[in-house]
Amino acid sequence: MTSVDWIVICVYLLATIGMGMWLSRKQDDLEDYYLGGRGIPWWAALLSMVATEASAATFLGAPEQGLTRDLTYLQFSIGTVAARFVLASVFIAAFYRLRVFTVYGFLTTRFGVPTQGTMAGVFLLGRLFASGARLFIAAIAIEVATGLDMRTSIILLGVVAVLYTMVGGIKAVVWTDVLQAIVLVGGGIIAAIHLFGATPLSGGEIWSFLADRDKLRVLDLDWRTADGALAFLYNPYHILPAVVGGFFLTMATHGTDHDMVQRLLTCKDSADGQRSLWVSGFVSVLVTCLFLAVGLLLFVYLQHLAPSHSMALKAADLAAQGRNGHVFLHYIVDILPVGVGGLVLAAVFAAAMSSLDSAMSAMSATFVSDFYRPFFRPDEDQRHYLRAGRWATGVVGILLVGVALLVVHYYEANPDTDLLSIALGIMTFFYGALLGIFLLGFMTRARGSTMSNALGATFSVVVVLLVRYGSDLGWPWFIVIGTLVAFAIGLAGRTAASLVSPQVVRAS
């Protein structure tokens, strides 16, 4: 890291803070603060979603997939794109029709305030640990790339994100995410171009080199593992769990997680929200392809280095440690020209903050709208709720930083723990509960039982945890199982309630 690289990073961080401050003007109520007055252009909401999806884990994970595996990761995109069309036509249309403030407002209409509060609580708990863990992952990346201590990195990212999110609200989140999406994609393109130029092969020769090593395989259709077991049960990259899991995962992330849905509700109407969601699916696939290509090019580059080359030695050492995801970071720091490396590293910061600011805004909105206003201070004016929203954003930011610091402490005390896998999978423990209850709301007409909804959500989380740590089942099935458990228990309660009371309460 040179001084020029640090200057590039600092300019980027200051630009995000300045943008947040500038966007803080003309905020009179919660709709301005959390929904941007429902006036955000659909394309800006789209880019905000893309930036949020491309967390620091994606920035490192996709190149690692290309470097160590093949292109089968793209199978998830089939389910992801399909789910977006279902969500746009059913979920998003309903949210706009009901004019919900947060996604959990839909549950108030269908099941009442207790179910709304329960599921909002499930979201807050899961998102707190998931986003805190993602902040930890970003800190690992920054430490490897810059030498900056993980704790310092976490505090730095937290302070910057809190400053512009607390002041600027969702407008600051969306428009800084637009900047972050540009920096993220630009960083990936620059890295890909440099790798292509550093490889002593032509485009056709690179393609043949990769094809000969089976690196261009997209579909995994092998129904048996090497030991004869059913591959689709245990291999997460088999086409069946990838497509089905990708579908259920996207239904949860973009339909029940306010972290993602919030920016869809900032558009002026349902048509714009739906358009943003549809197009984002294809854009996200392109971004994934870009970073997979970076990984493939990195593979070709390393294969043509002399064994004594410093980068070849570093890659071999990282592979021996099981840290192939760090290879791309070292390439950025050690190989990219001065200034260019700083720009690409700014993309790492961008990926981290785009996820962090979204989590802070969504969690703050959920707390104020689904807990503070209905249960504690229902009759205050808009200025009061606006102040409460800003303070809630700051507190959420502090909590996320605190969780990330606790994870660092645990990681240092237990270095052999696979925290990266755990961190990336935290929300999968909760998504089944959320999606199951939301599907119950959309697919049934009776109001049902608040108790059974709560039990369904609770048992969903418990069952997924038991499956996760008690079997070798592929992780895409976790959300499917959790969804079915929550839906079945909730449905049983609805049926029981309808038998006890002949008068069925219809949805609004």
Q: Based on DSSP secondary structure assignment, what is the total number of beta strands?
A: 0
Low-confidence runs (pLDDT<50, min 5 residues)?
A: 503-508
DSSP strand content: under 5%
Classify the fold: give the CATH topology of the largest domain: Sodium/glucose cotransporter
The residue fraction in helices comes out at over 70%
- Count of domains: 2
Q: Would you tell me the structural class of the helices and strands? A: mainly alpha
Radius of gyration: 23 Å
Choose one word for the global shape: globular
Could you give me the name of the CATH homologous superfamily of the largest domain?
Sodium/glucose cotransporter
Number of helices: 21
Major beta sheet summary:
none
3D structure, described in words:
With 508 residues, the protein is mostly helical. The chain has two domains: 3-411, Sodium/glucose cotransporter, CATH 1.20.1730; 427-508, no CATH class. It has helices at residues 3-22, 30-35, 42-53, 56-68, 75-98, 105-111, 113-146, 150-198, 203-212, 231-234, 239-253, 258-264, 270-303, 310-320, 327-334, 340-376, 382-413, 419-425, 428-443, 450-470, 476-500. α7 (113-146) crosses α17 and α12 crosses α16. The longest helix is centred in the middle third of the chain and has 49 residues, at 150-198.
